[in-house]
Write a structure and sequence with these properties.
Keywords: 2Fe-2S, Dioxygenase, Iron, Iron-sulfur, Metal-binding, Oxidoreductase
Strand content: 25-35%
Oligomer: single chain
GO molecular function: dioxygenase activity
Largest sheet: 8 strands, antiparallel
Number of domains: 2
Enzyme class: oxidoreductase
Protein name: Aromatic ring-hydroxylating dioxygenase subunit alpha
Helix content: 10-25%
Bound molecules: FE2/S2 (inorganic) cluster, fe (ii) ion
EC number: 1.14.13.-
Length: 349
């Protein structure tokens, strides 16, 4: 199967992607977001039900994201058409008599929506059987679970994934935070391939010079990076005293050249180290340094087909994980697009 630059977005439509923090969408609130170049309205009704739909009103295309929930229905700001939480048109004020037929023709194009891990997730293509990866620590009340503020990267989502997997940029891109002491050579790592992605295990040496987070976070630890395709990657750090942190990054594609990085952190009970808020504040600074690097890369997204232009030369051991991601992602893409084709063919017969 050959890919073109549309292929990743076609496949990602079949997966759950985060579009907002749960706290951005209180009951009775309506907001707008863009996912995979699709402009969406997100609404949470007073009873808690979520609606994700195309934001263009079926009447004259006004943005429903600028509307409001009125008497339990989403109301368009332009001519007041109203929709229920399933997207069904319930009223057209300019009609003298209610007209069920016209309402039926005006159903919103609605998508799957769910809340998990403190985020709102949307799946644009209902034929995809993708499920969110389970991270028990994120839902274990004994762990301190904190969400970072999503950060917009003006770079393609695959650029961000490569960055999150990369272990040889710390001393350079993060010289101001992690410290120039970080070793740019990769530790001995073991890569295991899974059905839905891959995992990397490596021992991490202690940093010789302190960075701004004293003690625990610069001490020797075991690092496990688990990439659940297409774009859900966790890092688990296990310290020598048994304390742990689990972090996730999900670069949710907005356009081909931009993504919103959703991220969070779970800290094990009784963690002997900086308090959660300090860890989040520090991580924001580190992530901002990553953002600057990703936004500077040319081209802004990693080309889907291998080549020197965007993949890089890929000969250093430091690029092993990025290479593994691109390889696994292309295999995943092939499976997803074949499954999508099968679904389209069987529904056409
Ligand atoms: S454009 Fe929405 S009601 Fe007219
Ligand atoms: Fe980084």
């Amino acid at each position: 199967m050959t890919f073109d630059e549309d292929s990743p977005f076609l496949a990602l439509r079949r997966t759950w992607q985060p579009v907002a923090l749960a706290t951005d969408l209180a009951p009775g609130q309506v907001i707008g977001r863009t996912l995979l170049e699709q402009d969406l309205v997100l609404a949470r009704f007073e009873d808690g039900r979520l609606l994700a739909a195309d934001t263009a009103c079926p009447h004259k295309g006004a943005r429903l994201a600028n509307g409001a929930i009125v008497e339990g229905e989403l109301m368009c700001p332009y001519h007041g058409w109203r929709f229920d939480s399933a997207g069904a048109c319930q009223s057209i004020p300019s009609l003298v008599e209610p007209n069920p037929q016209k309402c039926a023709l005006s159903h919103l194009k609605a998508y799957g929506a769910q809340e998990r891990y403190g985020m709102i997730w949307v799946k644009l293509d209902p034929t995809g059987d993708h499920e969110l990866p389970d991270v028990p620590e994120f839902e274990d009340a004994r762990w301190a679970y904190r969400l970072g503020p999503p950060m917009r990267f003006e770079a393609g989502f695959r650029r961000e994934i490569e960055n999150y997997l990369d272990m040889t940029h710390f001393a350079f891109a993060h010289g101001e935070t992690l410290g120039k002491c970080a070793d740019p050579r990769i530790p001995d790592m073991k890569i295991t391939v899974h059905e839905d992605g891959f995992q990397m295990d490596a021992p991490f040496p202690a940093l010789e010079t302190s960075h701004e987070q004293p003690g625990k976070l610069q001490s020797a630890h075991h690092r496990r990076q688990r990439c659940h395709l297409p774009n859900f990657t966790t890092i688990r750090q296990t310290f020598t005293d048994g304390d742990e942190r689990v972090l996730v990054h999900i670069p949710s594609p907005v356009t081909r050249d931009s993504c919103d990085v959703f991220w969070s952190l779970a800290i094990s009970p009784g963690f002997d180290g900086p308090p959660p808020k300090s860890q989040i504040d520090f991580a924001i600074r580190v992530l901002d340094e990553d953002r600057i690097m990703c936004e500077s890369q040319i081209p802004s997204e990693v080309p889907i087909n291998p080549g020197r232009g965007g993949w890089g030369v890929l000969v250093t051991p430091g690029d092993t994980l990025a290479n593994q991601f691109q390889k696994s992602f292309r295999q995943w893409l092939q499976r997803e697009l074949s499954a999508a084709e099968t679904t389209t063919t069987s529904s056409a017969t």
